[in-house]
Each structure stands twice: as structure tokens, then as C-alpha cells.
User: What shape does this take?
Amino acid sequence: MVRTADGVELTGADGTLRVRGPIVARPVAGQVRIDDTTYRGAALVRPAAEGVTAVNLVELETYLLGVVPREIGGGRPPEELEAVKAQAIAARTYAVRQLGRRDALGFDYYGSVLDQVYGGMDAEDETTTRAVRETRGEVVVHDGEPIEAYYHSTCGGRTAALEEVWGGEPRPYLRSVSDRRPDGGWYCESSNRFRWTEHWTHDELLATLTAGLRERGEVGAVTRVESLEVTGRTRSGRAEALRVATNL
Assistant: This one.
């Protein structure tokens, strides 16, 4: 399958078919394969600036069957069903709230962390499928509207309020809360990103600093970074301001 000037070109064992504009493939079996992944539903294929764009066409509840295992992890035991249900409700709420925001792109959601990770049929498993089906149609609302159900894998011990991350008006349901367990540990400490260290060489740091200054039109003869100091933190304790001393 390749892009043409005004559509797409499909080549098979029995010849070539050229189609103007987008095409929709609806296999009788109700499954489509895009690259190396199998999806339920149909596939819409249309020309893109580079190559073609393939969009999986499925109902919301079917979409969630491939999202929940990718976001919370597949292979969960039955005793964790209630936690998986909470993930299913969060994922559904996010999807409902975001519906239509990417209309200009010709689809509803990216299948990655830009929205929610989506693995299609290949990701489905018994516990996550049960969680989606047993919470069918359930969403979290505030003042009669689905909430902005942002979620994450790791908080480092404390979540951040919405305005700390993206600015804008605070949300009463997206406040900073502690992740500490009653026994003194942390709920997300098993994550490999709970505590982490990043190492930069002097030259890497200098290149990043210079690029930032160039964007602001403030490039001088900076050749050395003397020191770094955190000068401001958010209410959740994250660094939000640095003082950088250079040779200038």
C-alpha cells in the first residue's frame, strides 16, 4: 500500500488497485491487521503528507479492551479486579472527555502516550476484559461533566496539581496528594521511575542552555557552566526554577 497523488494504491497477488481518497476496509471476520498488530473493527486508510495514515474504527468499549491492559499491565490476577476496574473507568472517562478534540486530524485518539496506549486485540486479556465489561458505560463526573481523567504510572511520592503541570484553572479533583501507604512505604515505589538519576556531561548541559538562550535571542559567548541551583519549587516539591551561573 502506497500513497499516490490523490489517493492510495493497493497491490496484491492478483494485481493493483488505485483508489482516490480514503478507503475503509471492513473484513468479514471483524479483524484487521496494521503493521504487526491485530485490531477489532475496521480500518480507514487515507493519504498523508508522508505515506498513508491508518485509523482503526471501533466502538468505545471495544477500544478500551486494548487500552486497559496496556495502561495498567496485562496478566493481572483476579484478586486485583477492582483496581483494574478503576483503571477502566479512568480510561473511559479520559476518552469521553477528549472525544472530538482531534477532529482536525481525522481521528479521535493517538494510540500512544499522547493519549492512551492502545494495543488492539493483541493486548487483550481475561482480567482487563472483564473489568471493561463489568464497568460498561461508567465514567467519573464533576458538575455534570466527565472529568479530565489524567493518570500516570509514577508520582515519585506525591502527585502534582493540574495547574502545576499545565497551568490554567485548578480542578478540585486534580489536587496534589501523598502516595504514602499506612505502613510508611509508597504505593508506586515498585516503578523504575519512582526515584531516578539523570547524568549530563558539561557539554550536553551547555548545548541545552545555549539552545534555550538562542530561542530567546539572548545568545552570548557562554562557554562554561559554573553551577546550578534550584531556586523555586512547586507545592508538591518539584523544581520549577533554576539559577544557572555561567562564565559571563
Q: What stands out?
A: The chain has a mean pLDDT of 89.
